[in-house]
Amino acid sequence: MSKSNCSDCTCRLANEVGQLKAIVNAQSRTLAKLVRQMKEGCKKDEEAKESTLCGLNPCLKCLQPDILYHLGLNTETTDFPKVFGDVRFVCMGGTPGRMENFAYYVMQEIGLKINAATKLRNISEAGQRFSLFKVGPVLCASHGMGCPSISILLHELIKMMYHAKCKDPVFIRIGTSGGIGVEPGTVIISSEAIDGRLNPAHEILVHGASVQHASQLDESLADEIKMCHDPCKDSYEAIIGRTLCAHDFYEGQSRLDGAFCEYTPEMKKSYLETLQSQQVKNIEMESLAFAALTSRANIRGAVVCVAILNRLNGDQIKTPHDVLSKWEKRPQELVARYIRKVLYHNDDDDESEQPEDEAEAGAGGAGDTQKAPAEEAE
Ligand code: R2B
Ligand code: URA
To answer: For substrate, which residues are the binding ones (predicted)?
Structure first.
Protein backbone atom coordinates (compact mmCIF):
# COMPACT_ATOMS: atom_id res chain seq x y z
CA MET A 1 0.00 0.00 0.00
CA SER A 2 1.41 3.40 -0.95
CA LYS A 3 2.01 5.98 1.75
CA SER A 4 -0.83 8.22 0.52
CA ASN A 5 -3.31 5.30 0.37
CA CYS A 6 -2.33 4.44 3.88
CA SER A 7 -2.93 7.96 5.18
CA ASP A 8 -6.29 8.11 3.30
CA CYS A 9 -7.25 4.88 4.97
CA THR A 10 -6.15 6.08 8.43
CA CYS A 11 -8.08 9.28 7.91
CA ARG A 12 -11.24 7.36 6.92
CA LEU A 13 -10.92 4.92 9.80
CA ALA A 14 -10.38 7.75 12.28
CA ASN A 15 -13.48 9.45 10.94
CA GLU A 16 -15.57 6.29 11.22
CA VAL A 17 -14.33 5.59 14.74
CA GLY A 18 -15.22 9.19 15.65
CA GLN A 19 -18.72 8.78 14.28
CA LEU A 20 -19.25 5.45 16.08
CA LYS A 21 -18.02 6.97 19.33
CA ALA A 22 -20.47 9.83 18.92
CA ILE A 23 -23.37 7.43 18.37
CA VAL A 24 -22.39 5.31 21.41
CA ASN A 25 -22.07 8.49 23.52
CA ALA A 26 -25.44 9.73 22.33
CA GLN A 27 -27.03 6.39 23.17
CA SER A 28 -25.47 6.41 26.65
CA ARG A 29 -26.90 9.87 27.20
CA THR A 30 -30.33 8.68 26.07
CA LEU A 31 -30.11 5.73 28.46
CA ALA A 32 -29.02 7.97 31.32
CA LYS A 33 -31.88 10.31 30.59
CA LEU A 34 -34.41 7.46 30.50
CA VAL A 35 -33.13 6.10 33.80
CA ARG A 36 -33.35 9.58 35.31
CA GLN A 37 -36.92 9.96 34.05
CA MET A 38 -37.87 6.56 35.50
CA LYS A 39 -36.43 7.58 38.86
CA GLU A 40 -38.37 10.82 38.80
CA GLY A 41 -41.57 8.93 38.07
CA CYS A 42 -41.48 9.77 34.35
CA LYS A 43 -42.38 13.38 35.09
CA LYS A 44 -42.62 15.27 31.81
CA ASP A 45 -41.51 18.84 31.48
CA GLU A 46 -44.90 20.46 31.55
CA GLU A 47 -43.71 24.07 31.42
CA ALA A 48 -45.74 26.05 28.92
CA LYS A 49 -43.53 26.24 25.87
CA GLU A 50 -43.61 29.00 23.28
CA SER A 51 -41.81 29.30 19.98
CA THR A 52 -38.60 31.36 19.89
CA LEU A 53 -39.57 33.22 16.71
CA CYS A 54 -39.68 37.02 16.86
CA GLY A 55 -41.38 39.87 15.10
CA LEU A 56 -44.30 37.86 13.76
CA ASN A 57 -47.74 39.16 12.91
CA PRO A 58 -49.50 39.78 16.28
CA CYS A 59 -52.78 38.68 14.71
CA LEU A 60 -51.57 35.10 14.26
CA LYS A 61 -52.86 34.07 17.66
CA CYS A 62 -56.34 35.28 16.72
CA LEU A 63 -56.54 33.12 13.60
CA GLN A 64 -58.61 30.17 14.69
CA PRO A 65 -58.07 28.25 12.59
CA ASP A 66 -55.04 29.47 10.68
CA ILE A 67 -55.18 27.97 7.19
CA LEU A 68 -51.79 27.30 5.59
CA TYR A 69 -53.42 27.18 2.19
CA HIS A 70 -50.43 26.22 0.00
CA LEU A 71 -49.33 23.51 2.44
CA GLY A 72 -52.84 22.09 2.62
CA LEU A 73 -52.76 22.19 6.44
CA ASN A 74 -54.72 24.07 9.08
CA THR A 75 -54.52 24.44 12.83
CA GLU A 76 -58.01 23.04 13.39
CA THR A 77 -57.50 19.64 11.80
CA THR A 78 -53.80 19.23 12.65
CA ASP A 79 -52.40 19.44 16.16
CA PHE A 80 -49.30 21.49 15.25
CA PRO A 81 -47.44 21.20 18.59
CA LYS A 82 -47.99 17.44 18.57
CA VAL A 83 -47.07 16.84 14.92
CA PHE A 84 -44.39 19.50 14.35
CA GLY A 85 -43.33 20.53 17.88
CA ASP A 86 -40.07 18.59 17.70
CA VAL A 87 -38.85 20.13 14.42
CA ARG A 88 -35.31 21.49 14.72
CA PHE A 89 -34.23 21.69 11.08
CA VAL A 90 -36.21 22.88 8.08
CA CYS A 91 -34.44 22.05 4.83
CA MET A 92 -35.70 23.30 1.52
CA GLY A 93 -34.74 22.86 -2.11
CA GLY A 94 -36.21 23.51 -5.52
CA THR A 95 -37.88 20.29 -6.60
CA PRO A 96 -40.22 17.79 -4.90
CA GLY A 97 -38.10 14.85 -6.10
CA ARG A 98 -34.86 16.24 -4.75
CA MET A 99 -36.43 16.94 -1.37
CA GLU A 100 -38.00 13.48 -1.17
CA ASN A 101 -34.60 11.94 -1.90
CA PHE A 102 -33.05 14.23 0.68
CA ALA A 103 -35.62 13.11 3.26
CA TYR A 104 -34.67 9.44 2.74
CA TYR A 105 -30.99 10.33 2.78
CA VAL A 106 -31.21 12.36 5.99
CA MET A 107 -33.27 9.58 7.57
CA GLN A 108 -30.42 7.17 6.97
CA GLU A 109 -27.78 9.68 8.06
CA ILE A 110 -29.44 10.39 11.41
CA GLY A 111 -30.11 6.73 12.06
CA LEU A 112 -33.90 6.62 11.67
CA LYS A 113 -35.62 3.72 10.00
CA ILE A 114 -39.01 2.97 8.52
CA ASN A 115 -40.34 -0.35 7.43
CA ALA A 116 -39.06 -1.25 3.95
CA ALA A 117 -42.68 -1.58 2.79
CA THR A 118 -43.63 1.98 3.71
CA LYS A 119 -42.94 5.30 2.03
CA LEU A 120 -42.53 8.75 3.49
CA ARG A 121 -45.76 10.74 3.21
CA ASN A 122 -45.94 14.09 1.45
CA ILE A 123 -47.64 16.02 4.27
CA SER A 124 -48.58 18.94 2.02
CA GLU A 125 -50.04 16.84 -0.78
CA ALA A 126 -53.47 18.42 -0.30
CA GLY A 127 -52.08 21.87 -1.11
CA GLN A 128 -50.78 20.60 -4.48
CA ARG A 129 -48.04 23.25 -4.58
CA PHE A 130 -45.11 22.14 -2.46
CA SER A 131 -43.91 18.82 -1.11
CA LEU A 132 -43.21 18.40 2.60
CA PHE A 133 -41.67 15.39 4.34
CA LYS A 134 -40.96 14.93 8.03
CA VAL A 135 -38.15 12.73 9.26
CA GLY A 136 -38.00 12.98 13.05
CA PRO A 137 -36.71 16.51 13.81
CA VAL A 138 -36.10 17.35 10.13
CA LEU A 139 -38.66 18.86 7.75
CA CYS A 140 -37.83 18.71 4.05
CA ALA A 141 -39.78 21.00 1.72
CA SER A 142 -39.65 21.88 -1.97
CA HIS A 143 -39.85 25.61 -2.73
CA GLY A 144 -40.19 25.90 -6.51
CA MET A 145 -38.28 28.60 -8.40
CA GLY A 146 -37.78 32.22 -7.46
CA CYS A 147 -38.45 34.57 -4.54
CA PRO A 148 -42.25 34.78 -4.88
CA SER A 149 -42.53 30.99 -4.62
CA ILE A 150 -40.13 30.52 -1.69
CA SER A 151 -41.70 33.55 0.09
CA ILE A 152 -45.09 31.85 0.19
CA LEU A 153 -43.55 28.64 1.49
CA LEU A 154 -41.55 30.53 4.13
CA HIS A 155 -44.55 32.51 5.39
CA GLU A 156 -46.42 29.24 5.90
CA LEU A 157 -43.48 27.30 7.37
CA ILE A 158 -42.70 30.15 9.78
CA LYS A 159 -46.36 30.19 10.86
CA MET A 160 -46.12 26.42 11.28
CA MET A 161 -43.08 26.82 13.58
CA TYR A 162 -44.99 29.45 15.58
CA HIS A 163 -48.13 27.36 16.00
CA ALA A 164 -46.07 24.26 16.79
CA LYS A 165 -44.10 26.23 19.43
CA CYS A 166 -40.78 25.12 17.93
CA LYS A 167 -37.60 26.19 19.70
CA ASP A 168 -34.73 27.68 17.66
CA PRO A 169 -35.42 25.92 14.37
CA VAL A 170 -32.61 26.21 11.81
CA PHE A 171 -33.62 26.79 8.18
CA ILE A 172 -31.35 25.70 5.33
CA ARG A 173 -31.82 26.04 1.58
CA ILE A 174 -29.94 23.48 -0.50
CA GLY A 175 -29.78 23.98 -4.23
CA THR A 176 -27.98 24.68 -7.47
CA SER A 177 -26.46 27.88 -8.80
CA GLY A 178 -24.26 29.35 -11.48
CA GLY A 179 -20.71 29.88 -10.20
CA ILE A 180 -18.70 33.06 -10.77
CA GLY A 181 -15.09 32.10 -11.34
CA VAL A 182 -15.41 28.83 -9.42
CA GLU A 183 -14.83 25.28 -10.57
CA PRO A 184 -18.14 23.58 -11.46
CA GLY A 185 -19.07 21.16 -8.68
CA THR A 186 -17.87 23.56 -5.95
CA VAL A 187 -20.24 24.05 -3.01
CA ILE A 188 -20.87 27.68 -2.04
CA ILE A 189 -22.23 28.54 1.39
CA SER A 190 -23.64 32.07 1.20
CA SER A 191 -22.29 34.74 3.53
CA GLU A 192 -25.08 37.08 2.43
CA ALA A 193 -27.60 37.45 -0.36
CA ILE A 194 -27.49 40.51 -2.61
CA ASP A 195 -29.70 41.73 -5.43
CA GLY A 196 -28.72 42.60 -9.01
CA ARG A 197 -27.56 46.05 -7.86
CA LEU A 198 -25.42 44.33 -5.21
CA ASN A 199 -27.68 45.60 -2.41
CA PRO A 200 -27.99 43.24 0.57
CA ALA A 201 -31.78 43.65 0.76
CA HIS A 202 -34.94 41.94 -0.44
CA GLU A 203 -37.25 44.52 -1.94
CA ILE A 204 -40.99 43.94 -1.96
CA LEU A 205 -43.86 46.23 -2.88
CA VAL A 206 -46.35 46.74 -0.05
CA HIS A 207 -49.32 49.00 -0.83
CA GLY A 208 -47.44 50.03 -3.96
CA ALA A 209 -44.45 51.28 -1.95
CA SER A 210 -41.00 49.73 -1.88
CA VAL A 211 -40.05 48.03 1.39
CA GLN A 212 -36.55 46.62 1.85
CA HIS A 213 -35.64 43.86 4.26
CA ALA A 214 -32.00 43.10 5.08
CA SER A 215 -30.80 39.81 3.62
CA GLN A 216 -28.03 38.82 6.01
CA LEU A 217 -27.48 35.16 6.72
CA ASP A 218 -26.21 33.56 9.91
CA GLU A 219 -22.41 33.75 9.78
CA SER A 220 -21.78 31.14 12.45
CA LEU A 221 -24.17 28.68 10.81
CA ALA A 222 -22.32 29.12 7.51
CA ASP A 223 -19.05 28.36 9.34
CA GLU A 224 -20.52 25.31 11.09
CA ILE A 225 -21.72 23.90 7.77
CA LYS A 226 -18.39 24.66 6.13
CA MET A 227 -16.67 22.70 8.92
CA CYS A 228 -18.64 19.62 7.84
CA HIS A 229 -16.65 19.63 4.61
CA ASP A 230 -13.71 17.29 4.88
CA PRO A 231 -10.92 18.29 2.50
CA CYS A 232 -9.27 14.95 3.23
CA LYS A 233 -12.31 12.98 2.07
CA ASP A 234 -14.39 15.22 -0.21
CA SER A 235 -13.27 15.51 -3.81
CA TYR A 236 -14.67 19.03 -4.18
CA GLU A 237 -14.18 22.43 -2.61
CA ALA A 238 -16.61 24.14 -0.24
CA ILE A 239 -16.29 27.91 0.12
CA ILE A 240 -18.13 30.77 1.79
CA GLY A 241 -19.00 33.74 -0.42
CA ARG A 242 -21.57 36.31 -1.50
CA THR A 243 -24.56 35.10 -3.49
CA LEU A 244 -26.40 37.18 -6.04
CA CYS A 245 -30.10 36.44 -6.17
CA ALA A 246 -31.74 37.17 -9.54
CA HIS A 247 -35.44 37.29 -10.30
CA ASP A 248 -34.98 35.46 -13.59
CA PHE A 249 -32.71 32.75 -15.02
CA TYR A 250 -31.98 34.51 -18.33
CA GLU A 251 -31.84 38.32 -18.59
CA GLY A 252 -31.74 38.64 -14.77
CA GLN A 253 -28.52 36.58 -14.81
CA SER A 254 -27.08 38.27 -17.91
CA ARG A 255 -27.38 35.19 -20.12
CA LEU A 256 -27.02 35.47 -23.87
CA ASP A 257 -29.22 32.44 -24.62
CA GLY A 258 -32.68 33.63 -23.51
CA ALA A 259 -35.62 34.18 -25.88
CA PHE A 260 -34.80 37.90 -25.63
CA CYS A 261 -31.44 39.58 -25.21
CA GLU A 262 -30.94 43.32 -25.59
CA TYR A 263 -27.33 43.59 -24.46
CA THR A 264 -23.98 42.62 -25.95
CA PRO A 265 -21.55 39.85 -24.91
CA GLU A 266 -19.19 42.65 -23.81
CA MET A 267 -21.83 44.06 -21.45
CA LYS A 268 -22.41 40.61 -20.00
CA LYS A 269 -18.66 40.07 -19.53
CA SER A 270 -18.26 43.40 -17.82
CA TYR A 271 -21.21 42.72 -15.41
CA LEU A 272 -19.95 39.25 -14.46
CA GLU A 273 -16.44 40.61 -13.93
CA THR A 274 -17.84 43.31 -11.66
CA LEU A 275 -19.57 40.59 -9.67
CA GLN A 276 -16.35 38.63 -9.42
CA SER A 277 -14.44 41.70 -8.23
CA GLN A 278 -17.08 42.12 -5.49
CA GLN A 279 -16.51 38.57 -4.14
CA VAL A 280 -19.77 37.25 -5.58
CA LYS A 281 -19.27 33.50 -5.91
CA ASN A 282 -22.60 32.41 -7.35
CA ILE A 283 -26.01 33.37 -8.74
CA GLU A 284 -29.29 31.71 -7.86
CA MET A 285 -32.90 32.77 -7.43
CA GLU A 286 -34.21 32.40 -3.86
CA SER A 287 -31.58 33.53 -1.36
CA LEU A 288 -32.87 37.12 -0.96
CA ALA A 289 -36.36 36.11 0.19
CA PHE A 290 -34.93 33.22 2.20
CA ALA A 291 -32.42 35.43 4.05
CA ALA A 292 -34.87 38.29 4.61
CA LEU A 293 -37.76 36.20 5.91
CA THR A 294 -35.67 33.96 8.16
CA SER A 295 -33.81 36.85 9.73
CA ARG A 296 -37.04 38.82 10.29
CA ALA A 297 -38.30 35.85 12.32
CA ASN A 298 -35.04 35.46 14.30
CA ILE A 299 -34.40 32.13 12.58
CA ARG A 300 -30.81 31.07 11.83
CA GLY A 301 -30.62 30.49 8.09
CA ALA A 302 -28.07 29.19 5.59
CA VAL A 303 -27.98 28.80 1.82
CA VAL A 304 -25.83 25.97 0.49
CA CYS A 305 -25.64 25.62 -3.29
CA VAL A 306 -23.50 23.70 -5.72
CA ALA A 307 -22.26 25.60 -8.79
CA ILE A 308 -23.31 23.62 -11.86
CA LEU A 309 -21.28 25.75 -14.27
CA ASN A 310 -18.83 28.64 -14.24
CA ARG A 311 -20.72 31.59 -15.75
CA LEU A 312 -17.44 33.17 -16.84
CA ASN A 313 -17.17 30.29 -19.33
CA GLY A 314 -20.71 30.17 -20.71
CA ASP A 315 -24.46 30.12 -20.18
CA GLN A 316 -25.78 26.71 -21.18
CA ILE A 317 -25.70 23.75 -18.83
CA LYS A 318 -23.89 21.10 -20.85
CA THR A 319 -22.86 18.81 -18.02
CA PRO A 320 -24.41 15.31 -18.33
CA HIS A 321 -27.31 14.47 -16.03
CA ASP A 322 -25.49 11.77 -14.09
CA VAL A 323 -22.73 14.26 -13.20
CA LEU A 324 -25.27 16.94 -12.28
CA SER A 325 -27.11 14.59 -9.98
CA LYS A 326 -23.82 13.67 -8.27
CA TRP A 327 -23.04 17.36 -7.77
CA GLU A 328 -26.56 18.09 -6.47
CA LYS A 329 -25.93 15.63 -3.64
CA ARG A 330 -22.97 17.63 -2.32
CA PRO A 331 -24.98 20.33 -0.48
CA GLN A 332 -27.23 17.54 0.81
CA GLU A 333 -24.23 15.64 2.15
CA LEU A 334 -22.82 18.66 3.99
CA VAL A 335 -26.20 19.57 5.47
CA ALA A 336 -26.94 15.99 6.56
CA ARG A 337 -23.53 15.87 8.26
CA TYR A 338 -24.29 19.17 9.99
CA ILE A 339 -27.66 17.88 11.26
CA ARG A 340 -26.09 14.66 12.43
CA LYS A 341 -23.36 16.57 14.23
CA VAL A 342 -25.83 18.86 16.00
CA LEU A 343 -28.02 15.92 17.02
CA TYR A 344 -25.33 13.54 18.21
CA HIS A 345 -22.00 15.29 18.72
CA ASN A 346 -22.98 18.14 20.97
CA ASP A 347 -21.81 16.95 24.37
CA ASP A 348 -23.10 20.02 26.21
CA ASP A 349 -26.62 19.55 24.95
CA ASP A 350 -28.71 17.38 27.20
CA GLU A 351 -31.20 16.93 24.37
CA SER A 352 -28.59 15.35 22.07
CA GLU A 353 -29.80 11.82 21.72
CA GLN A 354 -30.36 9.14 19.17
CA PRO A 355 -33.96 9.67 18.05
CA GLU A 356 -36.12 6.63 17.99
CA ASP A 357 -38.72 5.80 15.42
CA GLU A 358 -41.35 3.80 17.17
CA ALA A 359 -44.43 5.65 16.00
CA GLU A 360 -47.02 4.09 13.77
CA ALA A 361 -47.39 5.32 10.22
CA GLY A 362 -49.14 8.68 10.07
CA ALA A 363 -49.81 8.77 13.83
CA GLY A 364 -48.41 12.28 13.86
CA GLY A 365 -46.88 12.48 17.32
CA ALA A 366 -43.90 14.77 17.85
CA GLY A 367 -40.78 12.78 16.95
CA ASP A 368 -42.61 10.93 14.22
CA THR A 369 -41.38 10.28 10.80
CA GLN A 370 -44.46 10.83 8.69
CA LYS A 371 -45.03 7.66 6.74
CA ALA A 372 -47.49 6.80 4.03
CA PRO A 373 -49.73 3.79 4.65
CA ALA A 374 -48.00 0.53 3.66
CA GLU A 375 -50.47 -0.24 0.91
CA GLU A 376 -49.32 2.88 -0.93
CA ALA A 377 -45.78 1.52 -1.10
CA GLU A 378 -44.44 0.81 -4.55
C1 R2B B 1 -31.32 27.57 -9.00
O2 R2B B 1 -31.75 26.83 -10.03
C3 R2B B 1 -33.07 27.25 -10.40
C4 R2B B 1 -33.07 27.74 -11.80
O5 R2B B 1 -32.64 26.73 -12.69
C6 R2B B 1 -33.46 28.27 -9.38
O7 R2B B 1 -34.50 27.85 -8.55
C8 R2B B 1 -32.26 28.42 -8.59
O9 R2B B 1 -32.18 29.23 -7.54
N1 URA C 1 -29.46 28.17 -11.13
C2 URA C 1 -29.44 29.47 -11.46
O3 URA C 1 -30.27 30.25 -10.99
N4 URA C 1 -28.49 29.89 -12.31
C5 URA C 1 -27.61 29.06 -12.88
O6 URA C 1 -26.78 29.50 -13.69
C7 URA C 1 -27.64 27.71 -12.53
C8 URA C 1 -28.59 27.28 -11.64
So the answer is: 253, 255
Ligand 1 atom with the smallest distance to the CA of 177 is 1
Q: Is 129 annotated as a binding residue?
A: yes
- Nearest in space to 121 (alpha carbons), one of 112, 111, 134, 108: 134
236 lines ligand 1 (CB under 6 A): no
Residue closest by Cα to atom 5 of ligand 2: 178
Q: Residue 87: inside a domain, yes or no?
A: yes
pLDDT at 372: 65
- Nearest Cα to 335, choosing from 308, 369, 301, 284? 301
Annotated ligand binding at 173? The verdict is: yes
Mutating to test ligand 2, I would choose from 249, 280, 313 the residue with most ligand atoms within 8 A of its C-beta, which is 249
CATH code of the domain containing 61: 3.40.50.1580
Distance of CA 125 to the CA centre of its chain: 20
The whole-number pLDDT of residue 33 equals 60
> 3-state class of 55 per DSSP?
coil
User: Domain range for residue 85?
Assistant: 52-344
Looking at residues 5-18, what average pLDDT do you find? 63
Residue 34 lies in a domain: no
Query: Number of folded domains in the chain?
Result: 1
| pLDDT tops 60 at residue 357 | no
Cβ(109) – ligand 1 distance below 6 Å: no
- For a mutational test of ligand 1's pocket, the pick from 285, 287, 319, i.e. the residue with the most ligand atoms closer than 8 A to its C-beta, is 285
Q: Is residue 98 part of a domain?
A: yes
CB 201 within 8 A of CB 292: yes
Decide if pLDDT at 65 tops 80.
yes
Distance 218 CA to ligand 1 centre (A): 22
Indicate which residue's Cα is closest to atom 6 of ligand 2: 178
3-state secondary structure (DSSP) of residue 75: coil
In a domain, 349, yes or no: no
Give the pLDDT confidence of 284-329 residue by residue, as tens digits.
999 999 999 999 999 999 999 999 999 999 999 999 999 999 999 9
pLDDT digits (tens, 9 = 90+) for 270-281: 999 999 999 999
